Amino acid sequence: MEEVGAEEQQRFCQRQRLKAAVHYTVGCLCQEVASDKQVQFSKQTIAAISEVTFRQCENFAKDLEMFARHAKRSTITTEDVKLLARRSNSLLKYITEKNEEIAQLNLERKAKKKRKPEDGNKDSLEPDVDVGEQ
Amino acid sequence: YKAGLSHYMKLFSFYSKMPVEKKALEMVEKCLDKYFQHLCNDLEAFSAHAGRKTVKLEDLELLLRRQGLVTDHVSLHVLVERHLPLEYRQLLIPCAFSGNSVSPAQ
User: Considering just the CA atoms, what is the radius of gyration of chain A in Å?
Assistant: First the structure.
């Protein structure tokens, strides 16, 4: 019984840390918007936005997993992300543009790596890793 | 196509359980038109995503899941059971017939 309790505690802690990180990022973004638009965000608003973001991430994760499984893959790719953004045209356009940018960057990096003689066969792994970081 | 729509109108008045103005019904007709357009686009995108050219039941299930109709608690079979008449249910849900065969074949 105690072990189960400890595990739960750990999970809760992890969740809180994740939430704190999201809250911090949301705060930074809100500050940017505030200085841009000359409006103030109350602390409660920022907290609400971060909570919504956290929940939205759960939905996104589930949907992306579903899409990847639908295409009989176990790795989520940019195609799945594009499918997720299909609901709104402007969002889809934006994401497609970003995707092309990232692909371009990856190509450039690959070209740079190919000039160096070592680790030539690592290149095939490169795109997926980089996309995950963005 | 018009006859099919009148069927949906009957369905709509059945679910609304109160008298509906004629203008409202026309609006519903327009909405249904849009709905089917969206539906077809989505199904096309999903089947293309899975590398197919044929729309399969999986694509429809994914769509219903995206629409929030199919969830972890309510499966597609439950919805079929609830909303479709018996002859369609028999087509969609595996049921055992005599002769040790399951229909539909899976």
Answer: 20
CA-based nearest distance A82→chain B, Å = 10
pLDDT tens-place string over residues B32-47: 889 989 999 999 999 9
Domain A1-73 has CATH 1.10.20.10: yes
Domain parsing of chain A, residue ranges? 1-73, 85-116
Q: Which of A70, A72, A79 sits opposite B62 (nearest CB)?
A: A70
pTM score, whole prediction? 0.73
A80 vs B contacts (CB less than 8 Å): 49
**Per-residue pLDDT tens over the stretch A65-107:** 999 999 998 999 888 898 888 888 899 999 999 999 999 999 8
Question: Of A113, A107, A98, A101, nearest to A127 (Cα)?
Answer: A107
Q: Name the phi and psi angles at B75, rounded to 5.
A: -90, 170
DSSP B93: S
Q: Do residues A72 and A96 lie in contact, with contact meaning Cβ atoms separated by under 8 Å?
A: no
- Cβ burial A114-123 (10 Å sphere, 16+ → b, else e): eeeeeeeeee
Highest mean pLDDT among A93-97, A121-125, B27-31: A93-97
The Cα B54–Cα B8 span in angstroms is: 26
